[in-house]
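>> received
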Amino acid sequence: MKFMKLGSKPDSFQTDGNNVRYVAADLETDIIVNVGDSKFHLHKFPLLSKSAHLQKLANTNESKPLEIYISDIPGGPAAFEICAKFCYGMTVTLNAYNVVVSRCAAEYLGMHESIEKGNLIYKIDVFLNSSIFCSWKDSIIVLQTTKSLLPVSEDMKLVSQCIDSIATKACVDVSKVDWSYTYNRKKLAEENGNDPNWNGVRNRQVPKDWWVAEVCELEIDLFKHVLMGIKTKAVLSGEVIGEALKGYAYRRLPGFSKGMIQGGDMAKHRSTVDAIVWLLPAEKGSVSCSFLLKLLKAAIYVNSGETTKDEMVKRIGQQLVEASVNDLLIRAAEGEATMYDVNAVKRIVEEFLRKDQTAEIQSLEEGHEIQERRPGILSDASKLMVAKLIDGYLTEISKDPNLPLSRFVDLAEMVSGFSRPGHDGLYRAIDMFLKEHPGISKSERKRICKLMDCKKLSVEACMHAVQNERLPLRVVVQVLFFEQVRAAASSGTSTPDLPKGMKDLNSGSHGSSRSATTNTEEDWDAVASAEELRALKGELASLRLASSERNGDGKSNIDKAAASKMRGLLNSKVFAKLFSSKGGQGENSGSDSSGSLGSANPEEAAKSTPSRNRRHSVS
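>> returned
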């Protein structure tokens, strides 16, 4: 730390109790200066010769002995004593901790060059410019001391000088940084003395964010001004500025790493969050999406304004592909019935989609008429990542028993247009919702299951689905059908024709069945019974076993066996009974159902024509 000594005489100030200070000298004191609760018994000549303000007060006071009052001097009695000692020529040591208060007190007392050459203000200004502002750490300390002296320190330009000094040093090329600084990072091997190849010469490059640790020691208003000064110089990248904001948030907001604020002054925390959001660099990717989501959680927790929250939602939407499911789990406000704030996530997804919608329309430079439509800027890869992210998020929020079906469906439908090769994630989310909400109606169960495309389920998901007692029978049948199609395609065989009722089921058309049997729709939307699922379980498990062995020896025979097994599953008496009991006569009336799943009497399958049997065989 830099320091400067003024004067050479020994300190002869003494205390006489009851806040009385005096100078031990042969001459009797002839002036009493009252500073707050303290009394200083001093001599007029050394004081009045250097202070214009004391001269003015003395000239307008005729009391005997002379007694004056200065209750509003910056820094109070301690600061006045430093100035008084300087007037007496006593030794005074100035450093980063007392130089600002001394400068403000000297300004108040009018200790300018016009009163006497080499006065206190001149000497302090020389010390500030030649030493303090040349030191990195001293500049930080001095800036911190200016806060208790506002607005005087600001009016005297001391605050702006400190900020400019700090900002200038932070923007210096790292190759020219030769001063001491604090850097929170793991020490390198050579720094610990554990590197056998270290020759004692440190050639490690200074990191670009070397200045962050000290700046994070500042209160939010000073931190904000320093960051603004750094950004104004336009030297450091957005990523470095982002590191400073991240470091400040983790240091100043307790619980921030956990996505919450733990106690403390909420008004102060709110101003901190608002300032960090306001200081975020404009460049996309300057801070991570995970940090932005933590910042949004903090903004919600401290009840920041809508402007702050909207800005966060906008930025998160632009980087949503980087987010994780845990990042998106935003706790709902107190008093809400649900566990998580799903509406906030919906707004984020809307912002993500808005980028694509905005890019779809290109307007003319003049007239603003629509010229042509072009593809959105979102890539298929980014859409797929967001769709998988939302699937995982839906799985987590489905564990909340108070989550309304409408919120689940609305969010799922927002990404339903994204092309996905698989729907396993969505199936897991739907299954979790059905598990945690067993009391939903048949229509609600049907509504949520319609979000899923059974054709896009993996083998493992299909195996789970056909044994899932929470799914409507319609979904189980669809899964079985598409498994047959997949098995037939993989073995190179043809897929057997389906009865009209089954075709209508998979196409979503049920007009004919409704005309014949009014309860058919409800039967298909009902949950499959345990008995029905158990009957299918063994058949499908056997089929999967054959399918998993296709890459081994006897591949051709196993493929044929697998296809035959699946065909047998769909033509089995068990499944025929299932279909006929649910579909009834109305599903298959007027159709050729010989040998089909919809035959009223399963034994009719045995009476089917040889030609139809040959068409269904594996050749």
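>> The chain has a mean pLDDT of 78.
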